[in-house]
Write a structure and sequence with these properties.
About 45% of the residues lie in helices and about 0% in strands. The chain is an all-alpha fold.
């Protein structure tokens, strides 16, 4: 079974993490969203801080929220995590949208409380992966975010 704690350990993949300012399309070889998430994490998420692209930041937020809720039991939950949930749930309905705004609104409302379960967090992560793959051209992340890293 796939677990979010896997993200904390960088795997050796066939594609190294993208260098700053990359413009090549984002691609993965995995066939299921869990494998794709792991590849995207390895390619797009830096060891610390925000990602440089919207795609990387969306993957980072999905992992960060899931880890806090599922692995840590929301022990560190605060307003920054609520802001992260708001930011994350905005991505799948932007640009080349892959999600219904009503479904994302419902997921956001649950995740913002820090009480989402595996089903809800996995669905949100699945939609995030789908959004990244539907928007493969790197989109630079604009300015400071409304949450701490």
């Amino acid at each position: 079974m796939w677990g979010f704690s896997r993200r904390a350990k960088r795997a050796t993949t066939s594609r190294p993490r993208q260098p700053p300012g990359h413009v090549e399309p984002i691609t993965v070889t995995g066939t299921v969203w869990q494998e794709q998430f792991n590849e995207l994490w390895d390619q797009l998420v830096p060891p610390g801080g925000c990602a440089e692209t919207e795609q990387g930041e969306a993957i980072r937020l999905a992992g960060k929220l899931s880890r806090e809720i599922l692995d840590n039991g929301s022990i560190n939950w605060n307003s920054d995590f609520c802001a992260m949930a708001d930011a994350l749930t905005a991505y799948p309905t932007s640009r080349n949208s892959v999600a219904d705004s009503a479904e994302l609104s419902a997921l956001r409302d649950v995740v913002r409380t820090g009480s989402g379960d595996k089903t809800e967090l996995y669905r949100l992560t699945e939609l995030t992966v789908a959004w990244v793959l539907a928007n493969p051209t790197p989109i630079p992340l604009d300015g400071p975010q409304a949450y701490r890293n």
